[in-house]
Amino acid sequence: MSFMALNNATDSFDKHNLIGFGKKGKLYKARIPYDRLAAVKRNFEPKISNFGGAIVFSKRQDFYMPKETVKERISHPSTTIDTLYRVVDKSLIGRGDDAKIFGLLDIARNCVEPLPDERPTMLQVYKMLIDVKKINNGFED
């Protein structure tokens, strides 16, 4: 896509289309042809970081976002293990995967640090996920 096409798709990188901030730039929502949405990084370096490729959503798809999102609950400076416990579906607790659940929440908490330089790299996240995968009933295999 040309810069003009990206500029049009993001309404001139309007602040209302700002999705978030990363280590290397701002991320904007863009409307592309065929009624699709895409994410565009302002530094124009294309990057797919979800290991499965980009997901394209149609305009008709709805999303539920509670007033207080999980991100807001786990990224607060005073986040404790007790706070993390409150974001977990209680029906999952006590089934033998508690250590994995809290390991994943801890990774998520690290990924939403306010300062980009304090967030782990994707390689670090990958290694942490591998470590969580090795956990078996609170003990590493």
From TrEMBL:
SUPFAM superfamilies: Protein kinase-like (PK-like). GO terms for cellular component: membrane. InterPro entries: Kinase-like_dom_sf, LRR_receptor-like_kinase. PANTHER family: INACTIVE LRR RECEPTOR-LIKE SERINE_THREONINE-PROTEIN KINASE BIR2 ISOFORM X2, LEUCINE-RICH REPEAT RECEPTOR PROTEIN KINASE EMS1. This is Serine-threonine/tyrosine-protein kinase catalytic domain-containing protein. It comes from Hevea brasiliensis.
